[in-house]
Amino acid sequence: MSTSALPVKPAYQLPVQAEDQGWLIEQLWADQGVGILGGEPKSCKSILALQIAVAVASGRPCLERFETKATGRVLLYAAEDAPQLVRQRLASIARASARGLEELDIQVIVVLNVTVDTEIDQQRLAQTVEQLEPSLLVLDPLVRLHSRDENSSHEIAPLLGSLRELQRRFQLAILLVHHARKGAHKMRPGQALRGSSELHAWGDTTLFLRRSKDRLTLLVEHRAAAAPPDLDLELRAQGDTLSLAILETSAAAQAPASPPHDDAEHVTSVLANAQCEMTFTELRAASGIRSQRFGVALKQLKHEGRVARTDTGYRLR
Fold first, then answer.
1. CB 180 within 8 A of CB 39
2. CATH number of 21-247
3. Residue 10, preceding bond cis, omega within 30 degrees?
4. Domain 261-316 is in which class?
5. In a 3-state reduction of DSSP, which class is residue 71?
């Protein structure tokens, strides 16, 4: 049997990707990228997947913050939800984005079963993608799309490989909704996904929703880009609209708290009058400020570079 060498190109002749074409949704999902939206039970995974779909179809920012960079058609398969519920949710999310559902090019696969680990359904899915040319394919959830052992890399890798081949062949983004493993609340997003580590390795992006009591947090990981900080979300259902939204306290928590102006100035005044280094305890006692407020003021002064810490205490710079 004759063989031929693999085709190669010099690195400088590889296609150039324009900077503004790197994202489908800026900081949230790579253009033509594959990945997983995972999470614990009742963490609004399907809602976020639909919200991403609406953002891509409408061109509106996702979560009212992340700019949609590549608007286009979305192909959706929601294996666990009745068509009526899918329509109701999509319509509610669209209205929250000031759009009517009829304005959005979202095509929904309406057969009962699609098994992407079988050759016939792989071919049917490829034919559908070829015909519709979507920018984004959403498959929700992975567990309903196959009959393989998710814990076996030998079994799950070919399934993921077929989806990667689909993405490359038709140049679209693919989002898989997937469940978390038990006890995932202390793990990194990728490690918290149920099943083989192949799932984490496969994705260009991993979004992970984590719920702790009444708090819902979105964690983001990218293969080749910096991730935004963790975001606290809330589900807003107002009238006939539905959406996940970022809590403003989420962004505020990323910046150091600013102490009251008088506290910081008082600490610097105490150090100036002392004319020597003071330990933490000496400085707090001399300032007469409560422990929590004193700690915040001192942290801010160090952040601003107005106070320095040495082996023996604190001093003014």
1. yes
2. 3.40.50.300
3. no
4. mainly alpha
5. coil
